[in-house]
């Protein structure tokens, strides 16, 4: 990675995440925040509430973000990057609006945002930008001059995101019994989203079957398969599959589901599977419940050996990647040339989401994009 140091014009980094409950009393209000106006069936909400109660009503996502904050601050300090790091969530405390208010009070005027979502899609990008716009509107209504907020480009193909995940897949393979290891399939998983949302994900030119969302995940999967082959000499068969589907059953969402996929592989005589949740940045509830609990129980029932590989979480290589992305963007904003690190076939993603990128069903103002109502 190139050694870049200067962070002007930015005076702060905002870690923007999903948020999660921190105890049993938080679960229902959290789910209400997440699903406000989104038409999720009541049955699904009750079921998802149970996932959280199974873990004492605590999502691991907040502690994972605290660990990432520590890793980022440590990395910045060790590399002479003088940039304070703040944290705000979309759906639970510390709430984004409160954090932005605090940042404004601290005199932060030019903020760069890292979202804990690496790929394009309405849920993974525009919804974060809509919530940024909502928070900025609240500040403006309170008479606070809203700071300027940019968002880092999608980092799915940054080596600091891909390589730690590839190492984890190798570790999971090594952890399988030796007699089934070479025949193991790799099941790359991500959050299912409605087909219609996938098809319109990314900029207009990426729209089509699966859109940027599926194309980006496939690119990452291929990169990991390549790294695994180089390391082990084995070309493991693989497929991109989905998890955590919600929404009404008559609306098509991306398939197959990981559990159906495990059943199919078992039926075909596959001896073992590594599940690699490449769609996520940390081992949060979607990983702990949908993979480690549900899919792992399904595999046990089938008698199919499975392992689940780790996400990047607070890996120091990921923290270094964030530094690289911040300094790259800072250079770009200063009008200087910057090296844009990216692996794979798609190349570095755009800095500024163009108009029509990952459109919403019901248009809402979104910040940090070409259609932002803010500077
Ligand atoms: C693409 C994507 C990501 C990855 C990108 C990113 O990370 O942002 C993601 C992450 C997450 N999703 C999470 C939790 C939930 N997502 C829900 C609902 C939904 N997610 C969707 C998509 C995504 N979700 C969609 C299309 C819906 C349907 C409703 C709607 O159209 O908005 C619901 C409602 C109940 C249910 O339906 O499951 C919950 C509770 C948590 C927190 C986990 C924790 O607590 O540890 C995290 C990190
Ligand atoms: Fe979700």
From TrEMBL:
<dbReference type="InterPro" id="IPR033659">
    <property type="entry name" value="Ferrochelatase_N"/>
</dbReference>
<comment type="similarity">
    <text>Belongs to the ferrochelatase family.</text>
</comment>
<dbReference type="Pfam" id="PF00762">
    <property type="entry name" value="Ferrochelatase"/>
</dbReference>
<dbReference type="GO" id="GO:0005737">
    <property type="term" value="C:cytoplasm"/>
</dbReference>
<protein>
    <recommendedName>
        <fullName>Coproporphyrin III ferrochelatase</fullName>
        <ecNumber>4.99.1.9</ecNumber>
    </recommendedName>
</protein>
<keyword id="KW-0408">Iron</keyword>
<dbReference type="GO" id="GO:0004325">
    <property type="term" value="F:ferrochelatase activity"/>
</dbReference>
<comment type="pathway">
    <text>Porphyrin-containing compound metabolism; protoheme biosynthesis.</text>
</comment>
<dbReference type="GO" id="GO:0046872">
    <property type="term" value="F:metal ion binding"/>
</dbReference>
<dbReference type="InterPro" id="IPR001015">
    <property type="entry name" value="Ferrochelatase"/>
</dbReference>
<keyword id="KW-0350">Heme biosynthesis</keyword>
<keyword id="KW-0479">Metal-binding</keyword>
<comment type="function">
    <text>Involved in coproporphyrin-dependent heme b biosynthesis. Catalyzes the insertion of ferrous iron into coproporphyrin III to form Fe-coproporphyrin III.</text>
</comment>
<dbReference type="InterPro" id="IPR033644">
    <property type="entry name" value="Ferrochelatase_C"/>
</dbReference>
<dbReference type="GO" id="GO:0006783">
    <property type="term" value="P:heme biosynthetic process"/>
</dbReference>
<feature type="binding site">
    <location>
        <position position="191"/>
    </location>
    <ligand>
        <name>Fe(2+)</name>
    </ligand>
</feature>
<keyword id="KW-0456">Lyase</keyword>
<keyword id="KW-0963">Cytoplasm</keyword>
<feature type="binding site">
    <location>
        <position position="286"/>
    </location>
    <ligand>
        <name>Fe(2+)</name>
    </ligand>
</feature>
<feature type="binding site">
    <location>
        <position position="59"/>
    </location>
    <ligand>
        <name>Fe-coproporphyrin III</name>
    </ligand>
</feature>
<keyword id="KW-0627">Porphyrin biosynthesis</keyword>
<feature type="binding site">
    <location>
        <position position="128"/>
    </location>
    <ligand>
        <name>Fe-coproporphyrin III</name>
    </ligand>
</feature>
């Amino acid at each position: 990675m190139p050694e870049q140091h200067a962070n002007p014009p930015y005076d702060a980094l905002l870690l923007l995440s999903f948020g999660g409950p921190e105890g049993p009393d938080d679960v229902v209000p959290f789910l209400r925040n997440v699903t406000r106006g989104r038409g999720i069936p009541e049955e699904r909400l009750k079921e998802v509430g149970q996932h959280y109660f199974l873990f004492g009503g605590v999502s691991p996502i907040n502690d994972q973000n605290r660990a990432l904050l520590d890793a980022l601050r440590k990395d910045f300090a060790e590399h002479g990057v003088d940039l304070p790091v703040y944290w705000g969530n979309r759906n639970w405390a510390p709430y984004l609006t409160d954090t932005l208010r605090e940042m404004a009070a601290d005199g932060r005027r030019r903020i760069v945002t890292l979202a804990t979502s690496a790929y394009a899609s309405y849920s993974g990008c525009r919804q974060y930008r809509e919530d940024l716009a909502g928070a900025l509107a609240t500040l403006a209504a309170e008479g606070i001059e809203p700071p300027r907020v940019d968002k880092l480009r999608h980092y799915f193909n940054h080596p600091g995101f891909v390589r730690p995940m590839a190492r984890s897949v190798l570790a999971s393979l090594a952890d399988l019994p030796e007699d089934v290891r070479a025949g193991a399939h790799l099941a790359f998983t991500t959050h299912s989203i409605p087909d219609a949302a996938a098809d319109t994900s990314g900029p207009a030119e990426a729209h089509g079957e699966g859109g940027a969302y599926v194309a980006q995940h496939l690119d990452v999967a291929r990169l990991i398969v390549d790294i695994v082959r180089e390391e082990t000499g084995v070309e493991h068969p693989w497929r991109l599959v989905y998890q955590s589907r919600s929404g009404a059953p008559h609306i098509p969402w991306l398939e197959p589901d990981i559990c159906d996929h495990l059943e199919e592989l078992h039926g075909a005589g596959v001896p073992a599977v590594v599940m690699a949740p490449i769609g996520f940045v940390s081992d949060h509830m979607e990983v702990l419940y949908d993979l480690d609990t549900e899919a792992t129980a399904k595999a046990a029932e089938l008698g199919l050996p499975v392992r689940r590989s780790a996400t990047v979480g607070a890996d120091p290589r990921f923290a270094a990647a964030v530094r690289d992305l911040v300094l790259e963007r800072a250079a770009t904003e200063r009008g200087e040339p910057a090296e844009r690190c990216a692996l794979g076939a798609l190349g570095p993603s755009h800095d500024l989401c163009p108009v029509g990128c990952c459109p919403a069903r019901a248009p809402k103002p979104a910040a940090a994009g070409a259609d932002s109502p803010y500077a």
